[in-house]
Amino acid sequence: MILCRVLGNSVSTVQHPCYRARSVMVVQPVDTDGHTPLGNEFLAIDSVQAGPGDLVLAAREGNTARQILGNDEDPLHAVILGIVDQVSETRVRTQG
Q1: Which of 47, 76, 86, 95 could bridge to 65 as Cys pair (CB 3.0-4.6 Å)?
Q2: Residue 76 and residue 63: Cα distance in Å, rounded?
Q3: CA dihedral sign of residues 86, 38, 2, 50
Q4: Burial (CB count <10 Å: 0-12, 13-18, 19+), residue 78
Q5: Where do the domains of the chain lie, and which CATH numbers do they carry?
């Protein structure tokens, strides 16, 4: 799973039938501070009614997207899994 910030909606006039009646969002991977970009933006199908500015968890595996959305045959690549309320870090000490 990837921590991301939703940048906005994606709109298309021509699309694969599996995208009809689904919201496709532009998301940016971010650091645990919720703002520092960590990679390139990508498109993800929204399964939790996220909106621009929301901090979300996303998966970039096609199999995960197909399982969450209940569709085994369509070419789905990424999905938004949840909206994040708060991020807290715990540092673990190791002996050695």
Answers
A1: 76
A2: 8
A3: positive
A4: buried
A5: 2-83 (2.40.50.220)
Mean pLDDT of 11-31: 86
Identify the three-state secondary structure at position 17: helix
Tell me the pLDDT tens digit for each residue of 62-85.
Answer: 777 666 766 666 677 889 999 999
Contacts of residue 63, defined as CB under 8 A and 6 or more positions apart, other chains included, come to none
* Residue at token pair 């929204």: 46
Distance in angstroms (rounded) separating the CA atoms of residues 69 and 46 = 10
- Residue 93: predicted pLDDT: 81
Contact 43, 10 (CB under 8 A): yes
